[in-house]
Hints:
Blueprint: H1 2-16, H2 21-43, H3 48-80, H4 85-101, E1 106-109, E2 112-115, H5 117-134, H6 139-158, H7 160-190, H8 192-202, H9 208-246, H10 252-262, H11 268-284, H12 293-319, H13 328-348, H14 350-368, H15 376-385, H16 401-408, H17 411-427
Antiparallel strand pairs: 1-2
Helix pairs in contact: 2-3, 2-7, 3-7, 4-5, 9-10, 9-12, 9-14, 10-11, 11-12
Amino acid sequence: MVVVVLLVGAALLFWISRPVMPLLVIAAMVSYLLNPIVDTFERLRIPRSLSTIVLYLFLLITIILTPILVVPVLIKQLGELFIDVPTVTLEFLRFLQGSVASLPPAVEILGFQFDISGPVLQLQSTVSGQAAVSIFPSAAQILDYFNRLLITTTNVVGNTALIGINVVGGLFSVLLSLLFLFFLSLYMTKDAPRIRAYVEGIFPVSYQSEAALLLQELGRIWQSFFRGQIILSITVGVVTYLALSFLNMPGALILAILAGALELVPNIGPILAMIPAVIVALIQGSDTLAISNFNFGLLTVGVYFVIQQLENQLLVPRIIGTSVNLHPIVVLCGVVVGASVGGILGAMLAAPTIASARVIVRYIYAKLLDQLPTYPLVEAAQRRKRTSFYRRVIRARPAPAEETADDENTPSEVLARRSSELGQTTAG
Length: 428
């Protein structure tokens, strides 16, 4: 009954806290990433409050200076990605018309002839006629668009005050959310030991040792995931930038930043990062390689495929290890469900959430069957800490003559002699 009441209360609290739950999760993630640094300073006899404040001030300065230094470079990269839409559309239309015009009137499959002249002629007439005209708007359509634009502009000008109030309110709300996120994460980092002790103290005394091990196991999962994802994102971004720069890909820096950012989405992220690079390669091509745009697009696909395979075979086993050891089907289903529930944040945290749920279910299953729960990650970490050891050799001291004499006599003789010595000492 107590467990049911606690679960209902936790569900109700979660439902009430839905508006601030994303900010709370992001603050917890930032605090969890910075907590090891503060723990290191604390072991060096630096007060935890001082190290936390200095660290967050450095983080705030970095967040402010990063756009100032990076935005000009990104604007230059965006200039390289300029696409002449009418020219590209016309070239694509010509390519489509040429491909459709070269279609045969019949095809042969397993020795049988199939007449497809009717559909081919209809497709050719459609592509060469209506499709070619419908891509570019007519004069009447342009006037209609212009009339709608005037009406929209008039409405916007008439509601300028309302729009200004909404914009100011939105900016104030964003600023307030960022301040709330900053200070919430700061207090979480500063009071992390108290929060950990409070969570462990919630469990009954007889279960606190197991609860501590269970929390350590869950902490290993999230620590490995966050640390691994940061290292993988930086590594994949740098390697992608070097590879695309070698191929003289326009906007290599933007595409590399996109590849590193989408690395946070398991399995699907690298594929999503490859799509804009392939589109740029097909449209703009390469200025250094004497190949067609189509071949350059295939080359780009090959580069992304090689990077992903090197990541999966070399980096992921050594960086993330077996902490989030889930089948790709489970990860894909988790990403879809997480995206539908929590958006981008839910898709990013799907894999460690499923891994944590697996650990909790294993613990409950072991307790129901009266078995001893296992904690593989904690045990592996303890084995790694035992890399150095020393051997202590205990040598026996030479026994005194009196004890040697005792060893040669029987126990009764020794007891009688020591009793007589004790009696003489007492009499004296």
